[in-house]
Amino acid sequence: MRVEENPPPPPILLSRSDHSLTFAPAPYNLAEKVCWYQLCGRVAEGLNWKVRLGDFSLPGTGKMVAFQTEQYTIAKRACRELWSHYTYPDCGSQSTDDRFAATELRKQALHCSSPHLCQLFLISIFIETEINIQQGSLYSDSFSDNGPFIWEQEARLAECERMLVAMDLAMCLNDDSGAVQAVVSCYGLLAPLIFHQITCDPVVK
User: Please, which residues bridge with residue 57 across strands?
Assistant: First the structure.
């Protein structure tokens, strides 16, 4: 957002209970389309009640709201916006000696971004993979009802590639837990292929 623009108004409180609050974005005249929303909040205590972008320790804040509300089409669109901004569309025959994934990260874009935005990109990778796992029934304990056909193998390998990008990004951010999460997700995607001893060169690699 440019400095001369007015900041958006706070979200509208739709309902509340003893354990939860439900918000909706307030009307705001913005020339560009919004790809995702993020809620920030903090406990109202002390003298300073201002909420900042880094205030997302409360449950339900600091995450992609579209994913939490199962608006998967919107969530995936937001994830892909970040993906296209931080990755090259085609690496061709470039060397992969310095990374795990075939897809290359745009290091300059990462260096010019805030740590918070880089972390949001990492979260978005896990979110899109989780959505694709649910929509394609790519679970770790079995194949989908359609059986181990080639399309499911390709879908699992595509998500593994996304997890390798997440691993590369986590290494750049010195995020050990993010790297471990990517490794565990990769194993979960490959587990049925390994269990059924399905021969596949990318799996071996």
Answer: none
